[in-house]
Amino acid sequence: QVQLVESGGGLVQPGGSLRLSCAASGFTFGTYDMSWVRQAPGKEGEFVAAIGRSGDTYYADSGRFTISRDNAKNTVYLQMNSLKPEDTGVYYCAARYSTSGILSREANDYVHWGQGTQVTVSA
């Protein structure tokens, strides 16, 4: 079955960096769009970044985060730099099969989800 397993979260000081990974299995990874969505305490989910099957990308807040994928390893990454306390939350990896060529920025369009990894930015 489809599995998405996130890792790489943790506690980091403001200004620090983290690299999140999401290992996928159970589907043809290279044909899926992938995304990262975060859930901050007491807030709705927030779309962070997405990468299409062709490598096109979208960022909700450009400049500090970089999404990438390694189709040979069935893994998507989120490099996060210059972290701020407001980046704190649970980061979820999500997958969506699409043939439209349009990279969705809507979390509801993504049908497969991981269990999340906690990121805490605090001094």
Topology of helices and strands:
Blueprint: E1 3-7, E2 10-12, E3 18-25, E4 32-39, E5 45-51, E6 57-59, E7 65-70, E8 75-80, E9 89-97, E10 112-113, E11 117-121
Parallel strand pairs: 2-11
Antiparallel strand pairs: 1-3, 3-8, 4-5, 4-9, 5-6, 7-8, 9-10, 9-11
Brief digest:
It contains no helices and 11 strands. The chain is mainly beta and about 120 residues long.
Largest sheet: 7 strands, mixed
Provide the low-confidence segments as ranges.
Answer: none
Percent in helix: under 10%
Assembly state: single chain
What general form does the structure show?
Answer: globular
Number of helices: 0
Measured by DSSP, the beta-strand proportion falls in over 45%
Q: Class by helix and strand content? A: mainly beta
Question: What can you see in these coordinates?
Answer:
- With 123 residues, the chain is mainly β.
- Helices cover 0% and strands 50% of the residues.
- The chain contains no helices and 11 strands.
- It has strands at 3-7, 10-12, 18-25, 32-39, 45-51, 57-59, 65-70, 75-80, 89-97, 112-113, 117-121.
- The strands form 2 sheets. Strands 2, 4, 5, 6, 9, 10 and 11 form a 7-stranded mixed beta sheet that branches.
- Strand 5 and strand 6 form a beta hairpin.
- The protein is globular, with a radius of gyration of 13 Å.
- It starts with a strand and ends with a strand.
- The mean pLDDT is 95.
Provide keyphrases for this structure.
123 residues, mainly beta, seven-stranded mixed β-sheet, four-stranded antiparallel β-sheet, 0% helix
